[in-house]
Every structure is written in structure tokens, then in C-alpha cells.
Structure of Putative leucine-rich repeat domain, L domain-like protein:
Amino acid sequence: MKKLAFFLILYSNFTFTQSAKLDKQEVKVLAQIWGKLGLTEKRRWDFEEDPCSGQGEWQFSVRCDCSFNKNSTCRVTAIYIISENVSTALPVEFTKLLKLEVLDVGQNYLKGTIPSEWATMRLITLTLEDNRLSGPFPTTLTSITSLQYLNIRGNDFSGLIPEHISKLNNLERLYSIFTYNIYVYAFNNPTGKNNRSKLYTFLKFCIK
Ligand SMILES: *[C@@H]1O[C@H](CO)[C@@H](O)[C@H](O)[C@H]1NC(C)=O
Ligand SMILES: *[C@@H]1O[C@H](CO)[C@@H](O)[C@H](O)[C@H]1NC(C)=O
Ligand SMILES: *[C@@H]1O[C@H](CO)[C@@H](O)[C@H](O)[C@H]1NC(C)=O
């Protein structure tokens, strides 16, 4: 009897997680983004499968929060498109994913700059490392004040970092999130904590 009850609990949990699905509008937005990045041609992502199901290729590239609508609706919180040979511009459509907090599109061949529409995003982590983004420092980034971690290294940006980079109040916390890589270098020293001038140095370092 105990065994049966146990099984039933497992089973109901299983069916429960299966029932939470990505918001229909966000499914459309994902399809737009994947299309613009040229990823749908690769056919590794199955749009018949729910992107929040943790199945197939989705498990590596999309994270969701499924607590909406009494745990029945998911929203995208993180996207990882790393080393996929993407060589397009950065799609504006990322802004339509209102719960997106983590975006990592590192190690591709992305070109152009950051779309000005991105200013409305509330990202916490943004990794654009090792792409071919270019132009002056993308001032749009200074509007994403929620940013705690920003990595734009290994691109073709040029020129100086604008003064108003100091609008990124939260970025100073980054040194404590990444405790064992090179960023610590810029921050982790006796005067490094919450020091705008250190932040400035760090970002200069980011721009190659
Ligand atoms: C949603 O799921 C969480 C975690 O499993 C649970 O604590 C919460 O009570 C659920 N909320 C509703 C409305 O079902
Ligand atoms: C990217 O391109 C390289 C060289 O053409 C190829 O070897 C690699 O498999 C490609 N990676 C993906 C994810 O398409
Ligand atoms: C911030 O860092 C700069 C450069 O290292 C240093 O000169 C300055 O004294 C520091 N300021 C504070 C408040 O720690």
C-alpha cells in the first residue's frame, strides 16, 4: 500500500511538471529569434517540443520559470546560444521576453552593435564575449541598470567608455559572483570594492 502511495505521488508530480508550458506568445518570440539567428535552419531545436520541457536541444539553451498562472505557465528566464556559428546581428526581439535575466551568446560571429531597443531589458547577466560586434561602446548597455555581470570582451568595439557607464550601479557586485577568473583581477584588491574608477578600469580591459 505504501509503495502504491509513493508511486502515485511520483506520478502526480510527473504529470504536474509536464503540464506547465511556455507562454504561447513567448513561443512565437523564441521562434522569431531563432529564425533571425539562422538557428531554425539547423533543425536541432524542435519547436514541436515545449521549449521549457528540458527536452532535446532546449535543455542546453533555454531556462524557464514555470510558476506563472498557478504553476501552469512558463516564461523564459535564460538563453544560452554559445559557439553556434551565428553570424547575424543581435535580434531586437529579445526585448519581448520580459522575464529574461540571463543572455549568453558568446563565441559566435555576431556583428553590428547592441540594438537601442535593448535599453528596456532587465538583464542581470549578459555575455557577448568573442563575437564581432563593433562600433563605439554600445551606450544602450548603460540603460540596462539591472546588470550585475557584463562581458563584452573579444569584440571589435573601439573608442572610450562613456562617463555614464557609472549608471550601472549593480555591476560592481560582479567581482563577488565570479571569484576565480580574470575579472577578479580588476576588482579584488583592497580598493576594488564599490569603486567606480575600478569599474571603469575593468570595462577598459573588456574592450580589446
Ligand atoms: C507552485 O509550485 C510551488 C513549488 O512546487 C509550490 O510551493 C506552490 O505552492 C505552487 N503554487 C500553486 C499555486 O500551485
Ligand atoms: C561551426 O563551424 C565549424 C567550421 O565550419 C564546424 O566545424 C562546426 O561544427 C560548426 N558548429 C556548429 C554548432 O554548427
Ligand atoms: C578607487 O580606485 C582608484 C584606482 O585604483 C584609487 O586611486 C582610489 O583611491 C580608489 N577609491 C576608493 C574610494 O577606494
Observations:
- The chain has seven helices and nine strands.
